[in-house]
Design goal:
hydrolase, iron, mainly alpha, Endonuclease3_FeS-loop_motif, DNA-binding, Endonuclease Iii, domain 2, 2 domains, HhH-GPD_domain
Length: 219
DNA sequence: ATCCCGAGGG
DNA sequence: CCCTCTGGAT
């Protein structure tokens, strides 16, 4: 079997993406992403818990602390009380307060449209910054390679077997996918990785890209 | 029992 | 690189 050319790989990637889009849409979670500050807060809260849980809590948060300045001045115990069901609530409460404080003192009560500046905010790491750039600003700066993206990229062979670091996998993906699609990859692949392309016991027999996946049935 | 759309710190 | 922080869903 001849080695796949880059053009063929891009074509296959485009087909994968088409199908992902059918199943998961833009992948934009139901978090409120119209306001960059609120989106950032919601994404920080969403670490290690479901969007549904976050969406239950954020309305209470906005009600009690309508403006970033209110959150910046808040008593962390009050924040903790509201976000407790999400888990990691002490750390998250401290992050929210710090995030709001920096937002107010350095960014006029909003959040910067810059991947590196975003990561200076307490609680905002690479993954969250990427999410904010994509969802709030529609200005993707790359793909955040977490365990899901790493695993899926390898199984679909969108990167070579020697791509053994997140940076190498990202570099490969950026070449395979056009920039407009970087917006969706993280969101869609995370859902896909949970539902089909699981780390253990992948559901290849039911997977909607199995016919164009080189690893189908081999994981 | 085990896993989760992470970040920060040692 | 490894650990911790926490609750909820399955």
């Amino acid at each position: 079997m001849p080695r796949e050319t880059m053009a063929q790989k891009r074509e296959r990637a485009a087909e994968v993406e088409r199908r992902m889009f059918e199943v998961y849409g833009e992948g934009a979670c139901s978090l409120d992403y119209t306001d960059p500050f609120r989106l950032t807060v919601a994404v920080v809260l969403s670490a290690q818990c479901t969007d549904a849980a976050v969406n239950k809590v954020t309305p209470l948060l906005w009600e009690r602390f309508p403006e970033p300045a209110d959150l910046a001045a808040a008593d962390t115990a009050q924040i903790e009380e509201i976000i407790r069901p999400l888990g990691f609530y002490r750390a998250k409460a401290a992050k929210l307060k710090g995030l709001a404080q920096m937002s107010v003192s350095e960014f006029g009560g909003t959040v910067p449209q810059d991947i590196d500046e975003l990561q200076r905010l307490p609680g905002v790491g690479r993954k969250t910054a990427n999410c904010v750039m994509c969802q709030a600003f529609r200005d993707p700066q790359g793909i955040a390679v977490d365990t899901h993206v790493y695993r899926i990229a390898h199984r679909l062979k969108f990167c070579g077997p020697s791509a053994n670091t997140p940076d190498k996998v990202e570099a490969a993906l950026l070449k395979v996918y056009p920039r407009e699609q970087w917006l969706y990859i993280n969101h869609q692949w995370v859902h896909f990785g949970r539902e089909y392309c699981r780390a253990r016991n992948p559901r290849c027999s039911e997977c909607f890209v199995a016919d164009i996946c080189p690893s189908a049935g081999k994981c």
